[in-house]
Amino acid sequence: MTGTKSSSGNFLEDFSVGQVLDHATPRTVTAGDVALYTALYGSRFALQSSEIFAQACGLHQAPLDDWLVFHIVFGKTVPDISLNAVANLGYAEGRFGVPVYAGDTLRAVSEVIGIKENSNGKTGVVYVRARGLNQNSQEVLSYVRWVMVRKHDAASVITGHLPPDLESHVSADSIHANAVPNFSNFDVTLSGEPHRWGDYAVGEQIDHMDGMTVEEAEHQLATRLYQNTARVHFNQFAEAQGRFGKRLIYGGHVISLARALSFNGLANAVKVVALNGGRHVAPLFAGDTVFAWSEVLDKAEIAGRDDAGLLRLRMIATKDLPCTTFPLPDEADGVILDLDMWAAVPR
Amino acid sequence: MTGTKSSSGNFLEDFSVGQVLDHATPRTVTAGDVALYTALYGSRFALQSSEIFAQACGLHQAPLDDWLVFHIVFGKTVPDISLNAVANLGYAEGRFGVPVYAGDTLRAVSEVIGIKENSNGKTGVVYVRARGLNQNSQEVLSYVRWVMVRKHDAASVITGHLPPDLESHVSADSIHANAVPNFSNFDVTLSGEPHRWGDYAVGEQIDHMDGMTVEEAEHQLATRLYQNTARVHFNQFAEAQGRFGKRLIYGGHVISLARALSFNGLANAVKVVALNGGRHVAPLFAGDTVFAWSEVLDKAEIAGRDDAGLLRLRMIATKDLPCTTFPLPDEADGVILDLDMWAAVPR
Amino acid sequence: MTGTKSSSGNFLEDFSVGQVLDHATPRTVTAGDVALYTALYGSRFALQSSEIFAQACGLHQAPLDDWLVFHIVFGKTVPDISLNAVANLGYAEGRFGVPVYAGDTLRAVSEVIGIKENSNGKTGVVYVRARGLNQNSQEVLSYVRWVMVRKHDAASVITGHLPPDLESHVSADSIHANAVPNFSNFDVTLSGEPHRWGDYAVGEQIDHMDGMTVEEAEHQLATRLYQNTARVHFNQFAEAQGRFGKRLIYGGHVISLARALSFNGLANAVKVVALNGGRHVAPLFAGDTVFAWSEVLDKAEIAGRDDAGLLRLRMIATKDLPCTTFPLPDEADGVILDLDMWAAVPR
């Protein structure tokens, strides 16, 4: 007797605009997650590394890395949203909320805000707004993502509509105030670099210099840590017959690698506060070496704050391509990530 | 001057029926172990993942995954029992006791309950009952295992006898009452699936669908985390000359991989309470992809409890063989594990 | 517009004798770091594994493994000292101070104590004394290291002088008293071996027997965990064109592997108290299998203590070379590490 207890995930037909999905498996994050994150990326930002540094910035404890929070929330959405995804197309309106500390319990809720069938009749695009919440139902993160999903049956009729216009980027004055710690006592010796907000200029480009080669075991450990079950990352037996002949690395792994590399030149951009947009330009595979560079797209003050300012940063990651000449997605082969975010920096 | 301080492990001659072995290296388990376990297997069972979910089930904290407890207790027995093992032959009478929480300190004690020389005169089988204890000497696990061990000298005369008859399986009414949390407030939205005890039928088969490819670094990290020192898992220099020409993956790694995959269809079978028996049908090597399926062998109520019931589950793992046709050990190549256990499920 | 925010590290010209470097990124160490360390090396020393064992030795909690402390302090010095290092040449005068516990926050400070240009005009040797401090500014470790560093410009004139004479080894009576726990209640059953201080003889050699094969993912995870950014460990794209054509494994990874293997024969040498000296004789690469053996160089009592004594141990590690014949650096190919240390052992 064969049961029907297991799930092969949602297809385009299974989504409807306005649908709310309470994602499974709440997760208590711990110092263990933090240590693994350090081992996976080698991140050195002082705020997340030291309880004492964090307390000097007015926080109870060292907060979890912003992208670790992102990956855990994102991972929860995968079984419901993107198990049958063909591609992760874009992000918008990402805002980090209250800090996440070891001991907090995170869960995720998504709302479907748009659906559009593709002209090929085989796939479509689903837009969701995902929210990560802590044990007190405080928002730790929200973002919009759109993803290409397979139809179960090409003959299905899909009803839906595009989402309301998305912001081109998060406006600086809408940044959560509680997402920016107090940098009045920020110690630039311990943080690793002397550069403050005033030292960065719009248009400035920073080569983060170092390269990091990725192994299969590493991205699998990371993606499982995030309880992200997307099949393309784990199953070589199936992927050997797939598009690339090999396992595809979770795009978020690239974000965290680039972010860790960006310490060299952005050591004081310790807190990511918004994700304006982003695109996984090309896939990454085990054995590739990741490099990164950043450009300062904009600067903004924070109302009523003279301790901290905001930098809007474009972070580009490449594979097997050092970034000494600041390669751009449409100009150079080898670019794999093009991310746009706001980060808080001491003044 | 050459000392004799290091040990090459026990051989068949070194065991005697009734012998008690207090195993070395007590271990305080932590949130770090839990995070690594998540990263190694991607387990998503809500009870072990969320403090709040666990507290709603009447526990102080989220308990450690049952198989993590098993591996740590098992690992402690290896230096004394199975360093010179040819094969791990079987398990019986496994019972999980009080929950294990981060902060508990575990140790292990074994009693030799049977010894039998093989007719080839070179090996024999040792039967041990191993017990895992916490810092309050409460039993967290006990099980019988039998293992084929080399003789040091083929000429040795071995005295011993078989163990008393082992139970064919753990009877449902002998399950430790305190091994089953209170599922009165079990939230099937957060747990990931709606299926309750009453929804499962004896004979039902569940394909867990996903596959997980294993890397050398992963099984080595896991097996060291369990402080399991069995040589075949770690030493490629020696194994290149061995039976398989490569490192053999710890059988318990397969159990945990299959268990994590089984979330898809058994998300609410959150608590393993007994190990009825099991067999490592064939070895697993790095590069292989593990799949799994389960069959409901039996169902049982728990006396005085209307919040929870028991499912007796046969869990089969395969390598490079998807389980859509429910392959069995004696019918299909590729089966690597055949495990029989009881798990508690909300009613 | 190209910024100059990122750093390519210090060259020989950037150092001066007497210079003090406050290294970046203080680090709160946690149970997560401890679990990862166990998973990376499989260490089984009881003092670091069990809170209860540690408390029976008069400590508040289980202390972090001494070499984990070493690696974290060392890692902090890398961006300032050895990012452009050609080779790590030696260690001296290493002393472990107060125990480090999960929850402590470590930082590192170095003083340049010697500079000497090499006759080739392209490189020189920098001598630094590094100190690791906890959140109360107590010293957890100090050691001298000398490292060959590239000049930025061969034409530069380097002024400097050799350091004051370094001790040939740490004298036993200068060992930090608080670095040796109280072994009055040391349980040799739980610790794994019966051998006490009195059972070891000067000149005794111990083959630690087992071998451990190293994977790229493992040494990268380890080295990132230590926030050690030395480029040769991570960037296959660059190293493919380098001296060896592949990534070089952090020398400290070898120390920890050998130390974990040395449990077999030195299970009761639970606390390393001094690093007398050491040399990375040859590089290790992924795929190699590490073996180890030790020789007792000396023994010493501890003034006023009848619970513990000191063993001076020479620990040799090899690659793809079992240590049954106790290979020495100048006699056998395959030796990769020659380390000299003091360890405390129960009497």
Structural notes for this entry:
The structure is a homotrimer of 347-residue chains. Chain A is an alpha+beta fold. In chain A, strands 1, 2, 3, 4, 5, 6, 7, 8, 9, 10, 11 and 12 form a twelve-stranded antiparallel β-sheet that branches. The longest helix of chain A has 16 residues, at 66-81. The model of chain A has no long low-confidence stretch (mean pLDDT 96). Chain A has two domains: 10-29 and 64-166, Thiol Ester Dehydrase, Chain A (Roll); 180-347, Hotdog Thioesterase (Thiol Ester Dehydrase, Chain A, Roll). Chain A has helices at 31-41, 46-49, 51-56, 66-81, 188-191, 216-225, 236-239, 251-261, 263-266, and strands spanning 20-22, 27-28, 85-96, 105-117, 123-133, 139-150, 205-207, 212-213, 271-280, 289-302, 305-319, 335-346. In chain A, strand 5 and strand 6 form a beta hairpin. Chain A contains nine helices and twelve strands. Chains in contact: A-B, A-C, B-C. The interface between A and C is large, with 58 and 45 residues.
